[in-house]
Write a structure and sequence with these properties.
Layout: E1 4-12, H1 16-28, E2 34-38, E3 49-51, H2 55-62, H3 65-70, E4 74-76, E5 79-82, E6 89-91, E7 101-104, H4 106-119, E8 123-126, E9 128-136, E10 139-146, E11 151-161, H5 168-172, E12 177-179, E13 183-192, E14 201-206, E15 209-217, E16 220-228, H6 238-247, H7 250-255, E17 259-269, E18 273-275, E19 279-280, E20 283-285, E21 291-292, H8 300-319, H9 325-349, H10 358-361, E22 374-377, H11 394-403, E23 408-409, H12 410-420, H13 427-439, E24 443-445
Parallel strand pairs: 1-2, 1-11, 2-8, 5-14, 11-20
Antiparallel strand pairs: 3-7, 4-7, 5-6, 9-10, 10-11, 12-18, 13-16, 13-17, 14-15, 15-16, 18-21, 19-20, 22-23, 22-24
The protein binds flavin-adenine dinucleotide (FAD).
Flavin-adenine dinucleotide binds at residues 12-18, 37-40, 47, 49-51, 130, 162-164, 166, 168, 185, 224, 268, 270, 287-288, 292, 295, 298-302, 304.
Length: 447
């Protein structure tokens, strides 16, 4: 008979969120049985990333700051940005100011965090697929399958979905993903022919999207182009399109003058996204599984680790029977995401150079709605597809439509929506959502 492992908390995904959660759990409750599991072995290629200086504020409480410093990741002294004008501006981080941060090899960084969690007592299983079998007697049961085809089972009282933007377990539990755009990264590594003095991270916007490049070591540069998946050409046209996009970005192009491409172009989803349900009885989603940020923010890893830490507090409170523990966690993630949406918009608003470009047009939202216009919901709308989904989940759209079942002033719709439904939502995001619903005739104005 196959073995059954019993654990208190099972974490699906050993990325920054899952590993931080394991570290904090075991810091707080060293006797807890924690299993940290990842389907990947942690050795494939990932694009390099930049960590903001504030990451130190999380490494300290997790008890791994010194060990992290010994890893000797390269320092990152802010970002050079050509954004909103042709002039290259050397600034600190796009989102916050202080320096230096780090340029990391993402796989090495992930392996480091997972190994630290293992040292603290977590059972670490890499290269394992977990198939959810169901829940009996408050225990979640999974079948684990490894490369050697060895099958075991695991049972846990509490499950954390830290599986990144796939959020496989949370969606299995009924959560739905709310996508706010279709951003995709097309990236490739380059080898520099000679050592490079320019060590900054470079962000450069162009008509078709924006470029990101950063030096990962003395001679390795990672270069990524960010655009929307529906604006991409068919796969065989990708390589020529890459050169067209590069021609539109002189600073990035110049950076590649003395380098050779290594390997093929790779694609990764990079859309802003969140789950409409962040927790349920005995489970939560953390990190990118809960909410993902635009790579422009360079906040993804920071946010993932922070939500892992908060997730650990929530799981411990839940286990000790504290009422509302998971709800509180959910509210924190939601309001943080709302704030992020606002900041993301401010940054995209700064680029006004290509009014006709499809990529920029859809990121240029202006508030035009008169707060005293009277809105009502169209009884039988033709279809229900709406760009309001860039800012609202289906549940939120439905709440607005039900408020507007009787004619209502726009400002009162916003107030009722926040008061009766989703208090965490920012006014600006609700108003922009209303504008989309009006444009698409799901709402009408009383004339
Ligand atoms: C192109 C691009 C550039 C970026 N640049 C930056 C940057 O410069 N700075 C920054 O801070 N952030 C950046 N980010 C964001 C950052 O990578 C993520 O926000 C961060 O890694 C999220 O951590 P996580 O632990 O939530 O998820 P992930 O890092 O995605 O980890 C999830 C883990 O779960 C595993 N997994 C998946 N499914 C399962 C399953 N069913 N069972 C078990 N394991 C599973 C995966 O193998 C993976 O190891 C970038 C993202 C992209 C796409």
């Amino acid at each position: 008979m196959a073995a059954v492992i019993q654990t208190d908390i099972l974490i699906l995904g050993a990325g920054p969120a899952g590993a931080s959660l394991a570290l904090m759990l075991l810091q707080r409750a060293p006797a807890l049985k924690v299993c940290l599991l990842d389907q990947s072995t942690g050795h494939g290629e990932k694009p390099g990333e930049t960590l903001p200086p504030q990451i130190k504020d999380l490494m300290g409480p997790l008890g791994i700051l010194e060990a992290f410093q010994r890893e000797e990741h390269l320092p990152a002294n802010g970002t050079s940005a050509c954004w909103g004008s042709e002039i290259l501006v050397e600034n600190d981080y796009l989102y916050r100011t202080s320096a230096p941060g780090w340029r990391i090899d993402k796989q090495r960084f992930n392996r480091f965090l997972a190994a630290e969690a293992e040292k603290r007592g977590a059972t670490l299983r890499l290269g394992v697929n977990a198939k959810y079998l169901g829940k009996t007697n408050s225990q979640f049961r999974f079948q684990l399958q490894q490369e050697n085809d060895l099958v075991t089972f695991i049972e846990a009282a509490f499950v954390v979905d830290a599986s990144g933007r796939k959020a496989g377990f949370a969606t299995r539990m009924g959560a739905q993903k709310v996508r706010y755009d279709r951003l995709t990264s097309i990236w490739r590594n380059f080898r520099l022919k000679e050592s490079c003095s320019d060590k900054s991270t470079l962000v450069e916007s162009c008509k078709y999207g924006w470029w990101y490049s950063t030096l990962l070591s003395e001679n390795k540069l990672v270069v990524a182009f960010m655009t929307d998946s529906d604006l991409l050409p068919e796969y065989k046209r990708l390589e020529p399109a890459w050169h067209d996009w590069l021609d539109a970005a002189p600073y990035t192009k110049q950076r590649l003058d003395h380098s050779v491409a290594v390997g093929d172009l790779e694609m990764l989803p990079a859309a802003s996204q969140r789950l409409d349900t962040l927790f349920g009885e005995g489970w939560i989603a953390v990190g990118d599984a809960a909410a993902t940020f635009d790579p422009l923010s360079s906040q993804g890893v920071f946010k993932a680790m922070k939500s892992g830490i908060f997730g650990a507090y929530a799981a411990l409170d839940y286990r000790s029977g504290k009422p509302g523990a998971l709800e509180k966690y959910g509210r924190i993630v939601q309001s943080e995401f709302e704030q992020y949406l606002e900041i993301r918009e401010q940054f995209y608003q700064q680029e006004q150079r290509w009014p006709e470009s499809a990529f920029w047009k859809r990121r240029r939202h202006q508030i035009t709605l008169d707060p005293v216009s009277v809105l009502y919901a169209v009884k039988e709308p033709i279809g229900k597809n709406t760009n309001a989904r860039q800012l609202l989940s289906w549940k939120e759209v439905d709440a607005i439509l039900s408020i507007c079942n009787t004619p209502c002033l726009a400002k009162d719709v916003v107030a009722a929506f926040r008061q009766n439904y989703f208090g965490y939502k920012k006014d600006r995001n609700i108003i922009l959502g209303l504008q989309f619903l009006l444009e698409e005739n799901l709402l009408k104005k009383v004339s």
